[in-house]
Amino acid sequence: MHYKYEADKNLIKRDTFKWTILRPATLTNNPGTGKATIGRTHLGSITRDDVAKALALLADREDAAGLALDMVGGDTPIEQSLNAAIRKGETDFLG
């Protein structure tokens, strides 16, 4: 985790390209639920399937550039949770 944190700290200083950081909680191998909480979150877990879905949705979201988004399992559909977090426009990286 230390090196991931250091890499994220380095990345947020860059402005020559657009970036988005997705910071999932503890990953599990359970089947995906299609639901998550995204934004400033609590500790928890999230399925690899659900993280993959969020990454696929973020691939074409230029409006997410410059954001670091935390992600844990939740009750809101992933696309809806992503939309709300991006609309809020606050990065979750406090490092």
The main sheet comes to: 4 strands, mixed
The number of helical elements comes to: 3
Q: How much β-strand is present in the residues?
A: 25-35%
The chain-level mean pLDDT equals 89
Q: What is the helix/strand order?
A: HEEEEHEEH
Which regions are unreliable across 5 or more consecutive residues at pLDDT < 50?
Answer: none
* Gross geometry: globular
Describe this structure in words.
With 95 residues, this protein is of the alpha/beta class. It contains 3 helices and 6 strands. It has helices at residues 2-12, 48-58, 78-88; strands spanning 20-24, 26-28, 35-38, 45-47, 67-73, 76-77. The longest helix is centred in the first third of the chain and has 11 residues, at 2-12. The chain is globular, with a radius of gyration of 13 Å.
Summarize this entry quickly.
The protein has 95 residues and is α/β, with parallel strands linked by helices. It contains 3 helices and 6 strands.
Q: Which structural traits does this protein have?
A:
35% helix, 6 strands, 95 residues, alpha/beta, two-stranded parallel sheet, globular
SSE layout and pairing:
Blueprint: H1 2-12, E1 20-24, E2 26-28, E3 35-38, E4 45-47, H2 48-58, E5 67-73, E6 76-77, H3 78-88
Parallel strand pairs: 1-5, 2-4
Antiparallel strand pairs: 3-5, 3-6
